[in-house]
Amino acid sequence: MNSGGTPLLSVRAEARQLVAPDYAELDGQIEHTAGSKAEAVRSVTGSLDQLTAGLAALGAVPFDAGADRRPLTWSAYSWGTHEELYHDAETRQMERTGQVTATVALRMTVRDLGRLDDLAGLAAAHPALNVDRVSWEVDWDNPAWPRVRAAAIGAAIGKARDYAAALGATVAHVEHIADAGLLGDTAPYQMVHSAAYARAGRNQPATPALTPVPQELTATIEARFRTTDVSLPGA
Question: If I label 60, which of 2, 14, 20, 167 is the partner at 20 to 30 A Cα–Cα?
């Protein structure tokens, strides 16, 4: 082997960086209960139409393949109905109330974070809308990703130099650089950002605090380095 049998150092290193989120996602649902399925569906459809009209007034467009990074998008991605039930204390069974509940689940995505207050105001104006989750996200191609990955490589080189110096040697060259897990038997580490959430309980008059939360990008790598010859004391 052309390395001459010199020691092989294997290290794992990590780098982190806080960045502003690229966009926010608001997940929620519109819910109506009525005496029949048809009436419940009509009510929930009417509320959805009112909400989407308000979103359109803010410049929102329906989400599709061509609207990936528009400033404000929305999607109503599922709907359903179910009979309302209650627990009868005498029979100890779940009994029907005769009412039917219809729901529509939707997501609003805002990239123009300056419109957060407008969006929060719109949500507060629609009592049938329950906002369950607000998340802050970072794009896969955010300009900070190359910097944090380069920092992880720099950290690996620094760690390898520390180990080599402890052996009385120096780092000679790089053998491998890989995402964590690809050089061993452990599962690969995902290089993902941490998400922060704001939640709003159902039927609460307050809306989530829509203040952008910095996100932490994490890059974790594994690396192997060859060192110069090592002469151990007493060898």
Answer: 20
pLDDT higher at 171 or 3: 171
Q: What is the DSSP string of 46-106?
A: HHHHHHHHHHHHTT-EE--GGGTT-SEEEEEEEEEEEEEEEEETTTTEEEEEEEEEEEEEE
Q: Which two tokens stand for residue 8?
A: 């092989």
Specify burial of residue 179 (Cβ count, 10 A radius: 0-12, 13-18, 19+). Answer: middle
pLDDT, one tens digit per residue, over 145-180 is 999 999 999 999 999 999 999 999 999 999 999 998
Class of domain 23-137: alpha beta
Pick the CATH number of 1-21+139-235 from 3.40.50.300, 3.30.110.170, 3.90.1210.10, 3.30.470.20: 3.30.110.170
The 8 Å CB, 24+ separation contacts for 122-125 are 122/51, 122/54, 122/55, 122/58, 123/26, 123/28, 123/207, 124/205, 124/207, 125/54
Instruction: Please state, in angstroms and rounded to a whole number, the distance separating the CA atoms of residues 35 and 235.
Output: 89
Question: Could you tell me which residues are beta bridge partners of residue 82?
Answer: 101
Reported as a single tens digit per residue, the pLDDT across 79-98 is 999 988 767 677 766 666 78
Which pair of tokens denotes residue 185? Answer: 């038997």
Q: Where exactly are the structural domains of the chain? A: 1-21+139-235, 23-137
In angstroms, the CA 210 to CA 134 distance is 8
pLDDT in tens, 193-223: 544 444 444 444 455 557 899 999 999 999 9
pTM of the model: 0.79
